[in-house]
Amino acid sequence: MDFRMLNEGLKLIEQASYILESISNSPGVTPLQFLTALDSNGIQGSERREVLLEAATSIELSLASVNNETHPTIH
Fold this sequence. Notes:
Blueprint: H1 3-23, H2 31-40, H3 46-65
């Protein structure tokens, strides 16, 4: 197992999560909102933006699949 690659993937998911939290602490952030936040954070590289958008999409899909009003989900 390539732990370096795994660690990098976890860092990208963590960064996407922080960006999502800066937009909203509730599920439902749109791709346009996320891309605007990337611009605001000075994240320019197209490959990095694409990977972060994919990570954010995965997070949002996971949150959308959890519908538990007793324990609200946060990023």
